Amino acid sequence: SAAEKGGYTSFMLKEIAEQPRAVADTLLGRIDGSGALSLDEVRIPPKALREADKVVIVACGTAFHAGLIAKYAIEHWTRIPCEVELASEFRYRDPILDPQTLVIAISQSGETMDTLMALRHAREQGARVLAICNTNGSTVPRESDAVLYTHAGPEVAVASTKAFLTQLVACYLVALYLAQVRGTKYADEIRAVVRDLSSIARSVERVLETMEPVRELARALAHKKTVLFLGRHVGYPVALEGALKLKELAYMHAEGFAAGELKHGPIALIEDDLPVVVVVPSPRGRSVLHDKILSNIQEIRARGARTIVIAEEGDDEVVPYADHLIHVPATPTLLQPLVTTVPLQVFACELATARGNEVDQPRNLAKSVTVE
Ligand code: G6P
């Protein structure tokens, strides 16, 4: 009913709007006044966390994209090798796991069959499993050694939005916690990131306040057959997520690529007026990434692409190459997916609506895939 949707026309719009709150709630009480992580709920002994020599993340769909982003944070801050795998692939091969492996299973519902079977398989090999889950008492956390709950609140729309942002927050918390327990040479950077996390909900809110041009653009592109998404580093999984959202909601051909792979194939797809969304990393810090993507944008634009550029406020260098520019607040690179994903959700939701699709219940999809 309209009341359940809190005045929004769909649950998806309501859930997109709830993201600042969901992010803040997921951080609540987990960082103490001194900036230290307090995650007692992660009931895996610190000794086991110190001895872990590998992290393996398993998940499906949007949760898998959260895992891909987590890998960048975990490997950078903790120097533990981290693999990310689709649960459906993981469970049917012969993965190498032992008691020193920390498996992280990410699932909004906690009921996805492939994720559940993957974690059972991991535990049979003696690995420890930490669940990141949004649904209290669901099967995935019940069968795991420990759980870090996301506090997104119930997510009703089939396409995941606020659960995804909170999965990212939980992944950052786990990465920072591992770094804290094990010691890290990035202590200063981590202190800064913890500070940035405390203002990130406000940044998400600011993105939401500036979405009207994105909605307009989505309506203008509603007749298109294909949209491509490019990103690098953590922007690459964001590109995959942007493409997944368009497939799920708009039933449109959409693909995400690592921008560095352009020359190995995707650039052959570029034709006149093809919309290409590019997620641009922050020009501060690791600016080499920024320079690389600038040349990628130039390459596709020279071949006729219509460039839709998501870039940090104040990033003037991208302006000459952007047919459409979407600004997000300045955010450290590793945390940037929390702000760059939001315009892509709004874009897909509006485009699907313009095409007359039912956004809360896309055809052929289920909120939780509890069968094979
Ligand atoms: C389905 C949903 C997706 C979700 C995926 C994984 O495909 O439509 O939105 O990302 O399942 O679900 P989970 O509950 O395990 O996160």
UniProtKB/TrEMBL annotation:
Q: Which residues form a coiled coil?
A: none
Gene Ontology molecular function: glutamine-fructose-6-phosphate transaminase (isomerizing) activity
Arranged from A to Z, the UniProt key words for this protein are: Aminotransferase, Cytoplasm, Glutamine amidotransferase, Repeat, Transferase
What reaction gets catalysed by this protein? D-fructose 6-phosphate + L-glutamine = D-glucosamine 6-phosphate + L-glutamate
Give the active-site positions: K367
* Enzyme Commission (EC) number: 2.6.1.16
Task: Determine if Lyase is one of this entry's keywords.
Answer: no
Chain ranges of the SIS domain: 45-184, 217-362
Q: Does the keyword Zinc apply?
A: no
> What subcellular locations does the record give?
Cytoplasm
Q: How does it assemble?
A: Homodimer.
Q: What does this protein do?
A: Catalyzes the first step in hexosamine metabolism, converting fructose-6P into glucosamine-6P using glutamine as a nitrogen source.
Q: What is this protein called?
A: Glutamine--fructose-6-phosphate aminotransferase [isomerizing]
Location of this fragment in the whole protein = 244 to 615 of 615
